[in-house]
Amino acid sequence: MQENLVIVESPAKAKTIEKFLGKDFIVKSSFGHIRDLAKKDLGINIGEGYKPVYEIPGDKKKVVDELTKLAKSKTVWLASDEDREGEAIAWHLYEVLKLKPEQTRRIVFHEITKNAILKAIENPREIDINLVNAQQARRILDRIVGFELSPVLWKKVKPALSAGRVQSVAVRLIVEREREIQAFKSEASYRVIAIFLVPDTDGKLTEMKAELAHRLKTKEEAKAFLESCKDAIFTIEDITKRPIKKSPAAPFTTSTLQQEAARKLGYTVAQTMMLAQKLYEAGLITYMRTDSVNLSGQAIAAAKAEIVKLFGEKYSEVRN
Q1: φ, ψ (nearest 5 deg) of residue 111
Q2: Which residues contact 239 (CB under 8 A, 6 or more apart)?
Q3: What mean pLDDT value characterizes the chain?
Q4: 287 is catalytic
Q5: Which of 11, 28, 29, 21 is nearest to 118 (CA)?
């Protein structure tokens, strides 16, 4: 009989993890959040210190019933993600399933590999209530701001639009910036760029570009400067040689991943995160919602081995 129940967020992740843990573990998914602020009224008791009023949505009741039955007489491992939302999901599961401290373990991992999962099982921790409270504050603010502003949008702009604590501020910043752009009075200026043919030691001519250190305000100024250069003799006064060190780019964070995907592939944020989620669940990348640029020892060792194999030891320089 399986004595351990592991609860993760997504079903794809559940199948992969169950393979790693063996017959003593059953792995199930919560399919994300199992409860949210009540839809009736505001879902927040403002008079009681902004106390949230939670309810289990109709589409999650079957999931909750199944998890409640499975959790009885088992050690429950809450293995939702390590961000604010993941910590809140773990806390909601603890509350809704009426778990006891002695039967509950909170585990986190940054990659879905056998080593990472087994290491997480060996190092459980408690639910981080500070992270939970951060998520609750964020959700409550979203509801309050949206509840107050969305009806104004429906009336003034278009029905069914939503306003959030981030959207509303971002729109204001964009509007203010657009007004600055419209009010800006442009001034012309002229760059002067010269192309010199420089002989090397063998007498071979090489092109070298140089730009005037300052810009000229009018076309007449630029023409006058060029006229004065017609009979000028140009010389190189000094050459300085110095070594240049170029470091590799840091591993992606959430924002740099989204920026590069948009710049190089034209992906939206939603597309990027959907693809990253699939790669993570397949065990091919680390958890993608992060501000950390640290890599695991296993990833660094694998990269080193591949570089040495392809290019040789001299091209391998391990760094953290």
Answers
A1: -150, 150
A2: none
A3: 90
A4: yes
A5: 21
Pairwise CA distance, residues 1 & 7, whole Å: 17
When pLDDT is cut at 50, 70 and 90, the band that residue 1 belongs to is low
Residue 46 has what DSSP assignment?
G
Per-residue DSSP letters for 72-103?
Answer: TTSEEEE---SSHHHHHHHHHHHHHTT--GGG
Tell me which residue has tokens 């989620």: 277
Number of continuous H segments (helices) and E segments (strands) in the chain: 10, 10
Cβ-Cβ contacts under 8 Å for 209 (sequence gap 6 or more): 193, 194, 195, 196
pTM of the model: 0.70
Max CA pair span of the chain: 95
Do 286 and 299 contact (CB within 8 A), yes or no?
A: yes
Of 50, 190, 280, 287, which is the active-site residue? 287
In sequence order, what DSSP letters do the residues of 145-213 get, joined into one string?
A: HHHHHHHHHHHHT-TT----TTHHHHHHHHHHHHHHHHH------B--EEEEEEE-TTS-EEEEEEE-S
Render pLDDT for 117-141 as a digit per residue (tens, 0 to 9): 999 999 999 999 999 999 999 999 9
CB of 129 closer than 8 Å to CB of 95:
no
Amino acid type, 205: L
Chain centre to alpha carbon of residue 64: 29
Could you tell me how far CA 203 lies from the centroid of its own chain?
Answer: 54
